[in-house]
Amino acid sequence: MARNKIALIGSGMIGGTLAHLVGLKDLGDVVLFDIAEGLPQGKGLDIAQSSPVDGFDSRLTGVNDYAGIEGADVCIVTAGVPRKPGMSRDDLLGINLKVMEQVGAGLKKYAPKAFVICITNPLDAMVWALQKFSGLPSSHVVGMAGVLDSSRFRYFLAEEFKVSVEDVTAFVLGGHGDSMVPMIRYSTVAGIPLPDLVKMGWTSKEKLDQIVQRTRDGGAEIVGLLKTGSAYYAPAASAISMAEAYLKDKKRVLPCAAHLSGQYGVKGTYVGVPVVIGAGGVERVIEIDLSKAEQKMFDSSVAAVQGLTEACTKIAPHLA
Ligand code: APR
């Protein structure tokens, strides 16, 4: 059987980390794409030279022409610019929208059957625009945000409870940004919901609120420390789990920015919700009951995302 082909559109910090992870996990061959000449070729060669040590057979190549991604099974998009300290994800909109137009054209021409995972920020608006620019089915264009946000949430919770990260489950809803909605009552330690853990004296409501806020600010905390760019290890690991779910038809339930066609009362917008990812792409959007307070937070998150997509249509009216 032929090996899977995984195209990475953007070969910067996240792109390079993705390529390395694809190799280490032996998920398939990698084509790194970038507009910067030499960058994808150099990273591809560097990682390929680690393959004898780590024992993987992925072939890694770098290209500056979209023809190189032809026939890709999965495309992971990080092309664009990341944040610098003081910038919000939304400040990236104008520049990265133009990048999505180019990437969309490349996908349409060379990889129309691929499962596409977008990471470029501001995520919910960029994945929405990328789906429109590429014309690929919305089941095959999805945004990576919720896996990362919930992974950050899980990590902070595991630290607080002094238990293994493996035993903490958590998920967040809504847009990737300040309006994300961490779902306290659906987050657990080995099945015990967080509100019960408060009752059991494992933590306090105040401490949980602080962890929720730290999760919301998780990206900004890293930007503040790095100063020259944004997070890349955890975003890459999160996108790889989504790619793996698709390639191995795992039917994983993951929070992703998915196209809503009426679920949660939302139509034609991409926003973070739990979905099932398998060989059919986004096979199902899971609609959970929200409490009044959760619904309110979710609605304002959706409104924030819709504000950004409207800003996109002002720049590119044909997206409307
Ligand atoms: N086409 C292809 N690649 C492009 C284009 C374009 N039009 N414009 C920029 N790039 C490339 C850059 O040359 C760079 O190599 O995208 C890459 C982005 O890499 P980094 O600057 O290292 O950014 P990274 O940390 O990988 O983040 C990428 O993901 O999380 C988001 O906010 C983040 O939007 C940012 C994206």
Task: Indicate the topology.
Blueprint lengths: L4 E5 L3 H12 L4 E5 L5 H10 L2 H4 L5 E4 L10 E4 L15 H18 L4 E4 L4 H12 L6 E3 L2 H16 L6 E2 L2 E2 L7 E2 L5 E2 L2 E2 H6 L5 H12 L1 H9 L6 H15 L4 E10 L5 E12 L2 E5 L6 H24 L5
Parallel strand pairs: 1-2, 1-4, 2-3, 4-5, 5-6
Antiparallel strand pairs: 7-10, 8-9, 10-11, 12-13, 13-14
Helix pairs in contact: 1-2, 1-10, 4-5, 5-11, 6-8, 6-10
This protein binds adenosine-5-diphosphoribose.
Number of helices: 11
Strand order of the largest sheet: 3-2-1-4-5-6
Structural class: alpha/beta
End-to-end gap: 42 Å
Q: Low-confidence spans: pLDDT under 50, at least 5 residues? A: none
| Bound small molecules, deduplicated | adenosine-5-diphosphoribose
Q: Calculate the mean pLDDT score and round it.
A: 95
Estimated share of beta-strand residues: 15-25%
Tally of extended strands? 14
SSE string, helix = H, strand = E? EHEHHEEHEHEHEEEEEHHHHEEEH
Question: Biggest β-sheet: count, sense, barrel?
Answer: 6 strands, parallel
Computed over alpha carbons, the radius of gyration is 19 Å
Helix content: 40-55%
- Please state the overall shape, judged from the principal axes of the Cα atoms: globular
Task: Offer a quick outline of the entry.
With 320 residues, the chain is an alpha/beta fold. It is built from eleven helices and 14 strands. The radius of gyration is 19 Å and the shape is globular.
Features of the shown structure:
320 residues, alpha/beta, 6-stranded parallel β-sheet, 3-stranded antiparallel β-sheet, 43% helix, 19% strand, binds adenosine-5-diphosphoribose
